[in-house]
Amino acid sequence: MTSVQFIGGEPTMHPDAEELVRHALDLGLRTEIYSNLVRVTDEWWELFQRHGVSVATSYYSDRAEQHSAMTGRRSHARTRANIEKALGLGIELRAGIVGDSGHIIDAARRDLESLGVTRIGADHVRPFGRGAREGRSDLANLCGQCGTGRASIGPNGEVSPCVFSGWLNVGNVQEVPLDAILSSAALAEANASIRSAVGAARARRADWGNCEPKQDCAPKNNCHPKQPCQPDTACRPRCTPNEECSPGPLSGCDPRN
């Protein structure tokens, strides 16, 4: 284990989060804090600047009303201002754009680039957490990379293959050592179930490849299996003119990309 990510909810609001981050750094772990960057205290700014710490955040649109509609409050101005502040302080930062419109994602990317953000990923809205709809969680909606060199530990100690698959409990670190859980049959079975469900979904969807968001990678945009992506498609930067959009694990599964 070489790295750890603190994610929520909002990790900076947890009363023990600062102590946990310092403990991770003392263990020599690369530490990423996934924050909405709405309210950042002086103590957190100090931690963000520690060696070995990086920050990640979600960005939904360059337009305040669209971003705030996703977060449920007027958060766009604060998040954007704190992205700019973090970069000014030399803090390592990446942003994940989440949305189902190629035009909105492209505009958000340009806005982030204008601020100086260089590490930018994109993913469509997955039906988990804030994006959840009524009904049972479906394994096929995961990215397919859950449990591959990673696992998620919830606030109660329960372990699952990733942050989006919290209902797949494979053990609890308060009862069993983490290394035993990571090598357990329960995790292997959960991972196999995810691979099977995602693989079946891809077989039904020819456009479910590495280009994201997936609905912008339909044949009409010249970005689908066995066809090269042209520079004028909405699949940038997942597919460049010299790459092909072949079916495979979705690489933009936020917050991991």
Structure overview:
It is a single chain. With 257 residues, this protein is of the alpha/beta class. The protein folds into 2 domains: 1-125, Alpha-Beta Barrel (TIM Barrel); 137-205, no CATH class. Helices cover 30% and strands 13% of the residues. The protein has 7 helices and 8 strands. The strands form 2 sheets. The chain has a 5-stranded parallel β-sheet with strand order 1-2-3-4-5, with helices on one face. The chain has a 3-stranded antiparallel β-sheet with strand order 6-7-8. Helix 2 links the parallel strand 2 (30-34) and strand 3. The chain is globular, with a radius of gyration of 19 Å. It starts with a strand and ends in a 53-residue tail after the last helix. Mean pLDDT is 78; it is low at 206-257. InterPro entries: 4Fe4S-binding_SPASM_dom (IPR023885), Aldolase_TIM (IPR013785), Radical_SAM_PqqE_MftC-like (IPR050377), rSAM (IPR007197), rSAM_sf (IPR058240). Residues 143-201 form the 4Fe4S-binding SPASM domain. Pfam families: Radical_SAM, SPASM. This is Radical SAM. Keywords: Iron, Iron-sulfur, Metal-binding, S-adenosyl-L-methionine.
Topology:
Blueprint: E1 3-6, H1 17-26, E2 30-34, H2 42-48, E3 53-59, H3 64-71, H4 76-88, E4 93-98, H5 102-115, E5 119-123, E6 152-153, E7 158-160, E8 171-172, H6 178-182, H7 185-204
Parallel strand pairs: 1-2, 2-3, 3-4, 4-5
Antiparallel strand pairs: 6-7, 7-8
